[in-house]
Amino acid sequence: MSAWQPLPDELPPEVQHFVEQLRLLKDRTGLSLVALGARTAYSKSSWQRYLNGTQPPPRQAVVALCRVAGEDPERFGVRWELAVRVWPRPAATTAGRPTDTAGTGPAMTEAEAEAYEDDPTLPWWDTPVEEPRTRPPGRLALYAALAVLALLALVGIGVALIGAITLS
């Protein structure tokens, strides 16, 4: 188990609760952040940001952690939705937008929360299996024909050599 840093007080309660639940889930796995990164396809530094409340995790990261911990991803999916909707945005994007209730920046709109899936990578177990590429038909027949021609050429050369030896 690790000793977690306290979460910032300005985080909304939904975010604090969600991050605390993620921390408990991570602790139950018994994995270090490096090992968790290897098992989930999300880096150690990404997990540090997610588990310290500085950045909301993508839904797929939460699903991956749930799978590693043997938990139901649906239960954490609901918590994720609630937290992402009120997660404070960076201060640089506050121009012309209302700030969240903590005053740390604008909260995500519902449409932004729905669209928040910024991680394009899939864990290896979710990657679709590619079908092996088939070679164009006839390539094997071409190789076989070339092998037969080479064999016939060798046989012809051998017959000619044997004939030359017997004539001399």
Account of the protein in words:
This protein has 168 residues and is mostly helical. It folds into two domains: 13-126, 434 Repressor (Amino-terminal Domain); 136-168. Helix content is 55%, strand content 0%. It has seven helices and no strands. It has helices at residues 13-29, 33-40, 44-51, 59-69, 73-86, 110-115, 139-167. It is rod-shaped and about 105 Å long. The termini are far apart. Residues 92-105 have low confidence and may be disordered.
Mean pLDDT: 79
Q: Fraction of residues in helices?
A: 55-70%
Question: Architecture of the largest domain, according to CATH?
Answer: Orthogonal Bundle
What is the count of helical runs?
Answer: 7
Structural class: mainly alpha
Q: Any idea of the CATH class of the largest domain? A: Mainly Alpha
Shape call: rod-shaped
Task: Sum up the structure in keywords.
about 170 residues; mainly alpha; 2 domains; 7 helices
